Amino acid sequence: EPEVTQTPSHQVTQMGQEVILRCVPISNHLYFYWYRQILGQKVEFLVSFYNNEISEKSEIFDDQFSVERPDGSNFTLKIRSTKLEDSAMYFCASRQGNYGYTFGSGTRLTVV
Amino acid sequence: GQQLNQSPQSMFIQEGEDVSMNCTSSSIFNTWLWYKQDPGEGPVLLIALYKAGELTSNGRLTAQFGITRKDSFLNISASIPSDVGIYFCAGQLRTGNQFYFGTGTSLTVIP
Q: Any chain A CB within 8 A of the CB of B29?
């Protein structure tokens, strides 16, 4: 069964450093998403991406965040200057049409 | 953002028992999804619902899209230990393409 692949599975970074989280969505999917989940809390929407541009973003997705689809297969989330409160699981998801998302296994980001 | 409330927040049941949980919102949703999340893993889609009143099954799982379009229900029959996890509902409004996630129901199955 097709999968959404995320790397790395765990990243530890110093506060103030930039991080890039990588995702390879399912190949024929057209819509791409990033969500995050702070430990013990619900899954929160960050951003959606379609046709090479952001289609929706939440209030969490401020100027510190950016997304890119650099080469037609990867979909990245960059956090420019990480803060302690950015520590969370970050999930990438993709979908084709109206069917539900397929989620990746996530990247656990720990900011120290 | 939208608030989706799930109840109960947690459940401890004996293996073999049936489970019911629900998800409610003050907004009208176009699509409801139910996911299961194991520790350290991403959510895995269980059931998708697209029409008010729709009742859909996936093995021992049955979910319904509420008539008011403001709620959804998930039932698990004859629970087994591998049903343990956190169950999330997610809803999509008529406008926009993001899904809003519920607060989760943690299920523990006692063998």
A: no
